[in-house]
Amino acid sequence: MLQLMNSRLLYWVLLGVFCTLNLLDGHSTYQVLKPYYYHRERNPVARWVFRRMGLPQGIVVFKAIILGMLIPAMSYYAAHDPFTINIVLVVSGVVFTLVVLHNYRVYNRIKEERLR
Length: 116
What we know:
Elements (H helix, E strand, L loop, with lengths): L1 H4 L2 H26 L10 H10 L3 H24 L1 H34 L1
Helix pairs in contact: 2-4, 2-5, 3-4, 4-5
């Protein structure tokens, strides 16, 4: 297990999962916030960007900036210490999975309320 966590191949797999979860977070966020329900966004920086740029442009720009900074930093770090960055990616994968699931639950609740 220790050797697997120190693997660069695992890093690329986890990075792919991280990017996929970020795409799902962007989609689920859009579903919850559309058309103009910015107050539902819990991240104040993201909320500010979304209000300034609108949806979906604000989501795309916000995610592009965040991923544009994180991916090179993680890749640099993975070249020197893949074990630690793999742990970070596993933890962030769990957190993002919970965020995405929460967003889709909120979206389903909103959708049901609209049908009433």
